[in-house]
Amino acid sequence: MSQHRPDTLQHAPLGRESAYPERYDATLLYSIPRAANRAPLGIEEGALPFVGEDEWHAFEVSWLNARGKPLVAVARFRLPADSPNLIESKSWKLYLNGFNQTRFASREEVIAKLERDLSGVAGSAVEVALFGVDDQALAPRRLPGECLDDLDIEVDDYTPSAAHLKVGEEIVEETLHSHLLKSNCPVTGQPDWGSVMIRYRGPRLDREGLLRYLIGYRQHQDFHEHCVEHIFSDLMVRARPERLLVLARYVRRGGLDISPWRATPGERPPEPLRLARQ
């Protein structure tokens, strides 16, 4: 990923000083076409090699009821991976802040407005759910499978290199994960911390090489969604698994977290799944 600000972000609020809105304003949402970042990976719109979603949680959601009393919730948003656009995170936060002093007749009205606005910007239907802050659906869980992080490896490469991905001849079905994923915002350079889970059936992956590869994103600048697509694409090319799921759970920043997943058709992530760091 280029270290320079992408052309699609020249007018985005990310990395700029912004006034926080006091009233609802759907025009604050800023779309980013997915195609530009997919092209270098050989991914063509309309012929995606994966299925998947971008799952967001917003922990700073509030509005006023019809009598002016504040209500709060945690929101879960699911954007399909085949939507033409993703939504820039700071614009999303500014948009949500506009609800804080806006009256709504019901919870259902809030959901309907969120679904309408977000779907319009993403270019595909966005699913919205609101949870109470103590809802058990939000309880943290652990990633399934075996953790790679205790492997005693030497690392001197902090850029993603698919050359680290090696496989053996044995066909296996396993789930692996690491909490050492880190990438950086392509605009501000701020660190994005995360965990990644890989579930596959195919030639056995060399675990030390896989961990070196994942650590290689440590100085990489890209959006969360594109990092996951990059990992998925490299694994498909280098390991050629029969089935593959790549899921990342990024730590929240600015009251938002994002958890993209990409998979071969028929694969789905375990649900519900939130980690303690989120």
Order of helices and strands: EHEEEHHEEEEHHEE
The CATH topology name of the largest domain reads GTP Cyclohydrolase I, domain 2
List unreliable stretches of 5+ residues.
Answer: 1-6
Based on DSSP secondary structure assignment, what is the total number of beta strands? Answer: 10
User: On the 0-100 scale, what is the average pLDDT?
Assistant: 93
Question: Fraction of residues in helices?
Answer: 10-25%
The CATH superfamily title of the largest domain: GTP cyclohydrolase I, C-terminal domain/NADPH-dependent 7-cyano-7-deazaguanine reductase, N-terminal domain
User: How many domain units?
Assistant: 2
Bin the strand percentage.
25-35%
**Rg of Cα set:** 19 Å
> Major sheet: size, sense and barrel closure?
8 strands, mixed
SS-derived structural category: alpha+beta
Spatial shape: elongated
CATH class of the largest domain: Alpha Beta
Strand order of the largest sheet: 5-3-2-10-9-8-7-6
Helix count equals: 5
Features:
oxidoreductase, two-stranded antiparallel ribbon, 5 helices, GTP Cyclohydrolase I, domain 2, elongated, 278 residues, NADP, eight-stranded mixed beta sheet, alpha+beta
Structure notes:
The chain has two domains: 7-138, GTP cyclohydrolase I, C-terminal domain/NADPH-dependent 7-cyano-7-deazaguanine reductase, N-terminal domain (GTP Cyclohydrolase I, domain 2), CATH 3.30.1130.10; 146-263, GTP cyclohydrolase I, C-terminal domain/NADPH-dependent 7-cyano-7-deazaguanine reductase, N-terminal domain (GTP Cyclohydrolase I, domain 2, 2-Layer Sandwich), CATH 3.30.1130.10. 19% of the residues lie in helices and 31% in strands. The protein has helices at residues 35-38, 89-97, 107-122, 207-215, 224-239; strands at 31-33, 51-64, 70-80, 85-87, 127-131, 146-147, 167-184, 191-205, 243-250, 256-263. The chain has an eight-stranded mixed sheet with strand order 5-3-2-10-9-8-7-6. Strand 7 (167-184) and strand 8 (191-205) form a beta hairpin.
